[in-house]
Structure formats: structure tokens, C-alpha cells
Amino acid sequence: MGEKQASADGDRRIGRRALLIGGTAAAVGSAVLARDELARLWWRAPGVEKPRVQGAVDFRGAQWVAASDANWRRADRPDDYGIDMVVIHVTQGSFASAVEVFQDPGHGAAAHYIVRKDGHITQMIRELDVAYHAGNRAYNERSVGIEHEGFVDRPEDFTDEMYAASARLTAGICARYAIPVDREHIIGHVEVPGTDHTDPGEHWDWERYMRLVRKVPSASA
Length: 221
Description:
The chain is of the alpha/beta class. The chain contains six helices and eight strands; from the N terminus they run H-H-E-E-E-H-E-E-E-H-E-H-E-H.
């Protein structure tokens, strides 16, 4: 009771100057929010086309194969949406089948990358764009999604080559966006709120994977 009364009395002593300052701060805050929203939407204006290099990849050595435009959203990350997370997926099928469904406009989902069993990396969506991979809009906007060829119940699908290539890829992403290399920022699809997926599954060796990511010279601490 005493604390509540003191708080109420303190509120009553707020003067006109404080109210004016508060009002100014609120107006500035609203202006910042409006500016941020315009930054997200500017490229949607008629005639505006953000410069792109056709076939460019974000990870050296990756092969570019474009996903269907229906499975991702054009953006300007990290300027409009900060990137602070990597989400690990398993395809539940072959590499070829994953490419096929990501190119299918009716599928409604795709990841930025697919890592094959032999370590080959294919990029299908630019990191600056929002891929529909996590099943959660907020997580899509803040993350890069990496698929891995195989099945969650087949540990033999997770090869040495796959772990090594994926670790280099994740380390590069973390370095680019100053993402901490830890399990709060490198997560499995199963850890995304609201998802019904179980990948990468119990056979994915997280301890090994994180150790490999940290060993890459460009990985952030």
C-alpha cells in the first residue's frame, strides 16, 4: 500500500514541463517507428527495384538455384529486419526432392540453403530476403534457414562432409551478422514456437556441430 501511494503521489507531482518533454519523446518515438516501417516497405512502391545481382550467392562455393517467388518474401535484411538466428532443418527426403518442392509455388515454404550429404551447398533464397521456412513469421524475419538432406531417424544421413560444410556455412552467417555462436541463436526447427516439426531430431549431434562451428576462424564468439 505504501509503495502504491508513493507512486501515485509522485505521478501527481509531474509538472507541465515533464508532460511536454514526455509528449515530445512520444512523438519522436512514433516518428522512428514510422521511419522503420517505411524502410521495410519502400521497395514495394511502384517502379522501385532494389539492385540485385542475378545468381549471386552469400556463401562462397554455394550453387545458386532459385526457389519459387511464392515461397519467400522480398526484403532488405538486416536493414529492415535484423538477423540474429540460424535455424537447422532436415529435409525428410532427398536433396533433389527438396529442390523440387522449394521451386513449387504451391508448396508455400523454402529455406535459404540446402546442404547435401556430400557437403555440397545450394542457395535458393538470398539472405537479405525472408524465407518461409520456420512456420513462424517473426522467426522467419529474423533467421536464416538451412536444410540438410536426409531423414531425422537415420543418423547415417548426417555425414562428416555434411557437418563440416554446414558448420562453415553457419559460422559465415554468424560472422556476417554478429550472431553469437550458441544454442540460443543456432536452433533446431523443433525449437521454433508454434511449430509441429521435430527436425533435426535426436540423432543430430548438437555438441559436435557447435564445436565445428566454433572452430571455423570467422565464427563469432
